[in-house]
Amino acid sequence: MAASSMLEYVKREIFESDYVILKPTDVEEILSIFMESDLNIKVTMLDPWYNKGVGGLRDDYIPYIVGLLKKAAKISPHVFLWGFPEIVAHFVERIPEPLSLKSWLTWYYKNNPSVIRGWRSAQMACLHLTRPDAVLYPEHFLNEKQLQKKSEGKLRFMPGPPSVIESSLLCGFVGKQEQTGHPSQKPEKVFEVLYKMTTKPGDIVLDPMCGSGTTGAVGIKIGFKSILNDYNEDYVRITENRLKTIKAIEIEQPIQKMFQFNE
């Protein structure tokens, strides 16, 4: 699909649906295409594969990821970059302008079944990078009492979420209903916090390495729209099946929005 045709397709579909799934395309090509788009994309999620392919086997991994960040910076005011701490640490001093580091986020889990001798991994890191025009929504985390105080002008400060998100790995019987078979699937709970902080209903998110489609699943539940792509055809099929199932459930029994968004 030509770039212009893809953008026209996305523009047409995104305003009529909760998500658009693209034909499997290389992430660099996808980012280049959306750099030229006038869509008001709020967040770009970069969650590269860590162990093969685009992961540690590339000799040019660091400049490759920096190149993706440069493109993402022209697409959206918020960019998330995932990886193991020893991987993302390389990029803290290599953040391309106009992005800057807003926060180092940690996903903490205790149920890693690894049999490797030595230290057992219990965390993954996510760099939250922002442009100067980025908007945060800490009010999305307020409880009813705090919201009432805010409406009355009596809320003294706006507490946001902690930078450490605790959620078990989706393995074994943990999160069985959420599991898709994707080897590095992240829990919806983890992505929910990120998107709750950076989007409001109707906003658009681009996930060019969507894996199992967790971005799309969370978008359906809390109200933002997702543009999804993965170079792996099997993962695209996983995403399609997962989101169709969620939508079918929503039609039969409308999903109660998991977060109360307030302007």
Notes on the structure:
- By secondary structure, this protein is α/β, with parallel strands linked by helices.
- The chain has one domain (39-109, 122-252): Rossmann fold (3-Layer(aba) Sandwich).
- It is built from eight helices and eight strands; from the N terminus they run αβαβαβαββαβαβαβα.
- The protein has an eight-stranded mixed β-sheet, sandwiched between helices.
- β2 (41-46), α3 and β3 (78-83) form a beta-alpha-beta unit.
- α2 runs parallel beside α3 and α6 crosses α7 (214-222).
- The longest helix is centred in the last third of the chain and has 20 residues, at 233-252.
- The protein is globular, with a radius of gyration of 18 Å.
- It starts with a helix and ends in an 11-residue tail after the last helix.
User: What are the secondary-structure elements, in order, as H or E?
Assistant: HEHEHEHEEHEHEHEH
C-alpha termini separation: 38 Å
User: Average pLDDT, to the nearest integer?
Assistant: 89
Helix content: 25-40%
Just give the CATH class: Alpha Beta
Low-pLDDT segments: none
Largest sheet: 8 strands, mixed
Q: Count the helices. How many? A: 8
CATH architecture: 3-Layer(aba) Sandwich
Q: At the third CATH level, what is the topology name?
A: Rossmann fold
Number of strands: 8
List the SSEs and their pairings:
Layout: H1 3-14, E1 19-21, H2 27-35, E2 41-46, H3 61-73, E3 78-83, H4 85-88, E4 100-108, E5 123-130, H5 144-151, E6 164-166, H6 188-198, E7 204-207, H7 214-222, E8 225-228, H8 233-252
Parallel strand pairs: 1-8, 2-3, 2-7, 4-6, 7-8
Antiparallel strand pairs: 3-5, 4-5
Helix pairs in contact: 2-3, 6-7, 7-8
